[in-house]
Amino acid sequence: MILFVHMLVGALLGAKIHSLAAIFLLGLISHLVFDRFPHWEYSPDCLKKSAGKNCLKTWGEIALDLFVGFIIILWLSNSSPFLIYIIFGAFVALLPDGLTLIYWLWQPTIPALTRFCQWHKKLNILANKQKKPIWGFIVETTIIILSVWLFAL
Predict the structure, then answer these.
(1) Kindly report the CA angle at 60 between 30 and 54, in degrees rounded to 5?
(2) CB 94 within 8 A of CB 3
(3) What pTM, to 2 d.p., does this model score?
(4) Higher pLDDT residue, 1 or 10?
(5) Mean pLDDT lowest for which of 73-87, 97-111, 134-148?
(6) E strands, 41-108, where?
(7) Distance CA 103, CA 100 (A)
(8) CA distances (Å), 66 to each of 21, 36, 100, 109, in order?
(9) Whole-number Å distance between alpha carbons of 18 and 4
(10) Could you tell me where the beta strands, DSSP code E, fall in the chain?
(11) Cα(78)–Cα(59) distance, integer angstroms
(12) Helices and strands, number each (H, E), in the chain
């Protein structure tokens, strides 16, 4: 799933739930649940250390995704007194992908991280087994619209 969608859901959790522990738990769960649905994602081959300069476009898309997500979340927060919870939620919702990125780039020999990343990869493979871009678009657009609507409540 593109990063903005995860960030938006995590930020929504932070806006509505003002407990760091609950936001942490629900942010991680939301990421893993939404990864089960058909979605778009960046090419894992371009994120590996060995890919090098061949994937600058993908890295640029990721940077833009994060930047736009952060700007939209700040705009939706509209000087909310709960901004720290909102930003924490957005960050936590990105953790599974962040851990996977660390694993791909540096290949640390941490058994728990290896197992987590293999499991996270399976979730994404199962969700995208039959690549049908229209379903990824529909799912992610629906999540965005619902999240923005719930932010406004």
Answers:
(1) 115
(2) yes
(3) 0.84
(4) 10
(5) 97-111
(6) none
(7) 5
(8) 24, 21, 16, 28
(9) 21
(10) none
(11) 29
(12) 7, 0
